[in-house]
Amino acid sequence: MPVATAPAEVGRAPSPVRLPERARPPLRVVEPPRRRRPRPSIRRTAIASIALVAGSLLTVAGADAYLTQGQVRLTRLQQQLGKELGRHHDLEAKVAQLSNPSAVVSAAQQHGLQAPGQVTDLPLATTATTGPAGSAVSPTPSTPSPSVQSAAPSAGPR
After folding, report:
1. CA 78, CA 30: separation in Å to the nearest integer?
2. What does each C-alpha distance from 24 to 14, 15, 27, 72, 113 come to in angstroms?
3. 118, 92 in Cβ contact below 8 A?
4. pLDDT tens, 115-151?
5. What is the DSSP string of 86-144?
6. Which residues contact 109 (CB under 8 A, 6 or more apart)?
7. The whole model's pTM is what?
């Protein structure tokens, strides 16, 4: 087997230009690059996490207590509203009963008042008013109503 041989003239790279010793800049030791931010320790991270969880739990417990207090107050106000609505309905029924005309007449008779023999309506206005077409309309006097029945004493509201 033939052996490969190198050519007789080997090309060499040109040698660098050397500066004289005085023109060379002085050499110095370079420090390794500093870390930009130190890594947080596991202990510090755990403490921060536990504090965050505990604070969150306390906040939730406080909010729950606040809502429960509001619900108790709302229930109390709803009960009071129910009582007041019942009282309101009772008073409305009493007003309706007392404003009944027969109840008013009987109460008046118990106090010694008598029903009138004749009732007369009074006219509403004495000045002329304008009608829809702009014509003057004079007020019409009310005709007296037939005599009202004489009120017989009643035993009470019907």
Report:
1. 80
2. 20, 17, 9, 89, 136
3. no
4. 778 888 888 886 655 555 555 555 555 554 444 444 4
5. HHHHHHHHHHHHHT-HHHHHHHHHHTT----S---PPPS-SS-EE-TTS-EEPPPPPPP
6. 115, 151, 153, 154
7. 0.39
One-letter amino acid of 132: P
Residue 105 pLDDT greater than 90, yes or no: no
- The tokens describing 3, both together, are 């052996």
Scan for tokens 């947080």, then name that residue. 40
> Could you tell me which of 156, 139, 64 has the C-alpha nearest to residue 105?
156
Give the integer Cα–Cα distance in Å for 144 and 146.
Answer: 6
